[in-house]
Q: What sequence folds into this?
């Protein structure tokens, strides 16, 4: 089980800032993903209209979610699949284990699934004697390392090739030590060879879902590697684990969102594989799984409906918010301390592990607004981070010194008659202290600022007092 | 009507009555930006009023989740400014708070929501007010040198301030503009963020100053003093000679004061 | 497990009714039914009018996604397949399903590829499929599962050759869903529908894009033009 370190966000961040490998990866990410998304969005004239429609579709779904879930279940069942409902993570894990046991499973291959990360499924299966094998290359690498994904679509984006090579040498000790491992291609070939055997021998395949289509009872995965497909067509049992808000009404509605998904995520017009799976193999089918299960996970989502966090349920996990976030770009995903990171993680994590543990996350934002600007689903992420700050403030979870300073400042700000002379005095003094240099290299009370930056000194005297002197009597 | 008596405009006629929300940072750190704003507004034919009771827009409280204090401060601002035709601030961040966030502060208070909404439609950031409302297309100012412009986040993304300052800068004699890489990326200031998460803030501003330096400017401009103090603080610590100023100072031809973070005697 | 079902649906209804959204139950049902039955189209980019333009766009987009594409007359498909295998130094051997259109291909009497029928078990170097449709919008192939075109052929062989009839290339996905509904029946689907845009790839090591991850390394498309 991977530890939750969200309460230590600040320490994590400091560590991340001095991690040269990570910083190099983040510099690359900063230019790479943002440029590709911008080009893809610009190349599609209807992109903005599609975003608006994608938002409207999800809003419609959320206010009819009960009915669409029932419709979806009915269609899955009619086509020979089975829907399981899990109110929380524990129930979901138990359902998956039960299915695996009934299939007498020893090995389980897995397509990339954030829900699996959220419910910490791998550790649970291992404890119960079942070997889970992540098959997305990035997920496979972080599974070897025992880490959380540092990005929702690029789980190993924090690593460089040297680190991956070392992991492969350690994990694939049966291969000749002098094998070619210089280029990324050779490492990918190696993983392909190792995982191909796993695909062919797995007893159960578990995938996530990007969409659940109510009209047809179809679950949809969107991938580039093809691992999700091999995961679900080769074993006898296919299990989809998905959260309840993944529902879309129809294939047409799915297509609307698909059009903004890859463009926002990787800048592709379309991911390589968009796969629609409906029920188990039909009697005439020569391949495909014999059993098809869907585990629908709630885990607190139903309670977000109707709250200031409802809009978060529109999220399609494209990662655009993190790619464009200056804080994520600076510290990477692991600093956030759990499975979701960046702006979407800053909103979602407190709902899932508690704001007492994840309180730093919604605070660690400059509110620059770039996440909302690029979110294909128009999710007002800064607004929701502010909502978390309000809840923290109400519950007195913010640090005492910070609260008392803020309160003191607000007290003065509300009393201009007291604020004016005090501010004037303070600025005149600071200006004098700043002296001829016009800035401070160190200043008591502003130590965290002046550690790495100078603080420009005030000019002296406030605008209001000068205005009164110059113009007030005219 | 103390404000009216104490303000500049006793001129009459159909001139636009503008309440200048000077912002707390300009008030405290850099009054010259306020005077530059007054000059630009008066040259645009406005009658400028400065309510003396103003302190701050309340954004620090708002972004810290303190709704009560925000509402108290917002009521004070609205009461002092709602009588003007327009409310103008030399800051996208503060104007954004007044324009975009005040209505939300009062979402559960119908009476104040109505006042906040009526107030908010009259609020503008200085640059966009000059070009979009008063129709100013050029200024009478000069500055010999190469400038680069940082787009402050709130102005850019909440208020759509992007072309307006550049259009006005194009009319400054002798001034050339060279865009930096990622001009729209955040500088890492974020108000209290810069203090609460100083290490992250520093990493973000270091990226910004690298992009500034790479564009080899004589002058860095922006429309928000918070960002400017942050970027100037980092540039000066790094030993940079780039001058840092609020865009209003250059447009008003008021560059005789020392630049932000520079010592006395360094002004032009 | 039905307990969890009741809890979840109950919570959703409670959250909705607190906000006055669950009122008028009949109206909500009606709205959902209407949408599921009517599947309204949203924003469909550039519905192209000329059929030829759609095919050309399909080819451009598929190539941009890393596929190789050629046009061939019905009678020349066999030649094209053999040439692809030869050009890539691959054995003249193909895994293929029972698709009628593929069975009608007249292979040359000499040097014709050996056809292995049925699903792939992972030991095939090359596979041949016939697409249900293509989407010109993004150069995307649409393949449906069944004895005609087993899904394993789409993923296990390193080389995947897909034949698509030019007449089956639509501009947008929506047109394909309409055809699919016509084929499978409303509310029904084949077990698997694969939308494939280029060969498999990964950029998980240092954000370096490498073609050929777990699926095919090469995707070759033969567009049949009459």
A:
């Amino acid at each position: 089980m991977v530890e939750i370190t969200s309460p230590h966000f600040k320490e994590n961040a400091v560590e991340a800032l001095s991690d040269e490998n990570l910083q190099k990866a983040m510099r690359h990410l900063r230019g790479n993903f943002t440029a590709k998304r911008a080009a893809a969005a610009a190349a599609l004239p209807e992109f903005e209209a599609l975003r608006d429609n994608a938002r409207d579709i999800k809003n419609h779904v959320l206010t009819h979610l009960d009915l669409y879930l029932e419709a979806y279940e009915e269609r899955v069942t009619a086509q020979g699949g089975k829907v399981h409902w899990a109110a929380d993570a524990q129930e979901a894990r138990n359902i998956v284990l039960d299915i695996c046991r009934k299939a007498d499973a020893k090995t389980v291959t897995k397509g990339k699934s954030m829900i699996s990360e959220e419910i910490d499924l791998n550790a649970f299966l291992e404890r119960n004697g079942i070997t889970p094998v992540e098959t997305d290359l990035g997920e496979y690498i972080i599974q070897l390392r025992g880490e959380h994904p540092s990005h929702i679509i690029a789980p190993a984006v924090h690593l460089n090739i040297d680190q991956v090579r070392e992991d492969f040498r350690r994990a694939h000790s049966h291969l000749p030590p002098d094998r070619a491992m210089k280029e990324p291609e050779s490492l990918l070939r190696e993983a392909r060879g190792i995982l191909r055997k796993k695909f062919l021998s797995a007893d159960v395949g578990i995938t996530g879902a990007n969409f659940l289509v109510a009209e047809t009872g179809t679950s949809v995965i969107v991938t580039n590697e093809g691992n999700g497909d091999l995961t679900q067509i080769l074993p006898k049992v296919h299990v989809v684990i998905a959260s309840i808000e993944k529902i879309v009404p129809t294939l047409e509605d799915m297509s609307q969102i698909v059009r903004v998904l890859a463009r926002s995520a990787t800048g592709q017009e379309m991911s390589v594989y968009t796969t629609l799976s409906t029920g188990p193999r039909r009697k005439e089918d020569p391949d495909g799984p014999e059993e098809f299960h869907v585990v629908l996970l709630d885990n607190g989502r139903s309670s977000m409906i109707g709250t200031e966090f409802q809009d978060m349920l529109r999220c399609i996990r494209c990662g655009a918010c993190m790619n464009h976030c200056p804080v994520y770009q600076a510290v990477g995903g692991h600093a956030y301390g759990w499975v979701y990171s960046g702006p979407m993680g800053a909103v979602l994590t407190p709902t899932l592990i508690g704001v007492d543990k994840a309180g730093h996350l919604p605070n660690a934002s400059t509110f620059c607004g770039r996440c909302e600007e690029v979110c294909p689903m128009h999710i007002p992420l800064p607004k929701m981070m502010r909502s978390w700050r309000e809840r923290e403030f109400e519950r007195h979870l913010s640090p005492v010194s910070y609260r008392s300073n803020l309160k003191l400042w607000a007290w003065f700000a509300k009393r201009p008659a007291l604020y004016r002379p005090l501010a004037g005095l303070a600025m005149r003094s600071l200006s004098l202290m700043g002296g001829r240099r016009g800035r401070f290299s160190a200043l008591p009370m502003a130590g965290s600022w002046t550690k790495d930056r100078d603080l420009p000194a005030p000019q002296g005297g406030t605008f209001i007092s000068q205005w009164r002197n110059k113009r007030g009597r005219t | 009507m103390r404000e009216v008596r104490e303000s500049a405009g006793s001129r009459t006629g159909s001139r636009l009555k503008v309440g200048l929300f000077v912002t707390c940072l300009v008030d405290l750190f850099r009054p010259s930006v306020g005077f530059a704003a007054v000059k630009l507004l008066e040259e645009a034919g406005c009658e400028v009023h400065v309510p003396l009771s103003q302190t701050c827009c309340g954004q620090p409280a708002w972004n810290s989740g303190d709704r009560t204090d925000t509402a108290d401060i917002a009521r004070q601002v609205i009461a002092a400014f709602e009588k003007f035709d327009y409310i103008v601030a030399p800051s996208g961040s503060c104007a954004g708070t007044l324009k975009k966030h005040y209505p939300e502060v009062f979402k559960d208070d119908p009476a104040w929501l109505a006042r906040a909404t009526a107030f908010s439609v009259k609020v503008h950031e200085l640059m966009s007010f000059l070009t979009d409302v008063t129709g100013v297309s050029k200024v009478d100012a000069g500055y010999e040198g190469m400038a680069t412009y940082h787009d402050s986040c709130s102005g850019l993304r909440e208020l759509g301030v992007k072309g307006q300052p550049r259009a006005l800068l194009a009319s400054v004699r002798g001034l050339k503009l060279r865009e930096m890489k990622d001009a729209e990326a955040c500088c890492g200031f974020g108000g209290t963020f810069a203090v609460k998460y100083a290490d992250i803030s520093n990493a973000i501003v270091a990226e910004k100053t690298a992009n500034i330096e790479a564009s080899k400017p004589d002058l860095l401009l922006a429309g928000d003093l918070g960002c400017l103090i942050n970027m100037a603080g980092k540039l000066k610590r790094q030993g940079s000679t780039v001058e840092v100023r609020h865009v209003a100072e250059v447009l008003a031809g008021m560059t005789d004061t020392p630049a932000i973070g520079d010592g006395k005697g360094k002004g032009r | 497990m039905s307990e969890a079902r009741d809890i979840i649906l109950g919570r959703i209804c409670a959250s909705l009714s607190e906000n006055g959204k669950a009122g008028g139950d009949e109206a909500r049902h009606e709205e959902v039914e209407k949408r599921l039955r009517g599947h309204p189209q949203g924003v469909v980019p550039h519905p192209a009018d000329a059929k030829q333009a759609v095919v050309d766009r399909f080819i451009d987009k598929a190539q941009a996604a890393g596929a190789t594409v050629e046009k061939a007359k019905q009678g020349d498909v066999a030649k094209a397949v053999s040439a692809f295998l030869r050009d890539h130094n691959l054995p003249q051997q193909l895994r293929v399903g029972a698709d009628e259109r593929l069975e009608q291909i007249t292979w040359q009497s000499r040097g014709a590829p050996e056809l292995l029928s049925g699903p792939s078990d992972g030991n095939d170097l090359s596979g041949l499929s016939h697409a249900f449709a293509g989407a010109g919008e993004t150069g995307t192939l649409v393949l449906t599962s069944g004895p005609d075109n087993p899904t394993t052929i789409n993923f296990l062989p390193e080389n995947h050759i897909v034949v698509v009839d030019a007449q089956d290339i639509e501009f947008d996905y929506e047109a394909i869903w309409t055809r699919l509904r016509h084929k499978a029946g409303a509310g029904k689907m084949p077990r698997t529908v694969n939308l494939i845009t280029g060969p498999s790839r990964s950029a998980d090591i240092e954000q370096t894009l490498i073609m050929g991850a777990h699926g095919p390394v090469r995707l070759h498309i033969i567009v049949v033009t009459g």
Summary: Residues 44-303 of chain A form a domain with the Rossmann fold fold (CATH 3.40.50.10420). The first strand of chain A starts at residue 82 and ends at 86. Residues 20-43 of chain A form the longest helix (24 residues). Chain A touches chain C through 104 residues (CB under 8 Å).
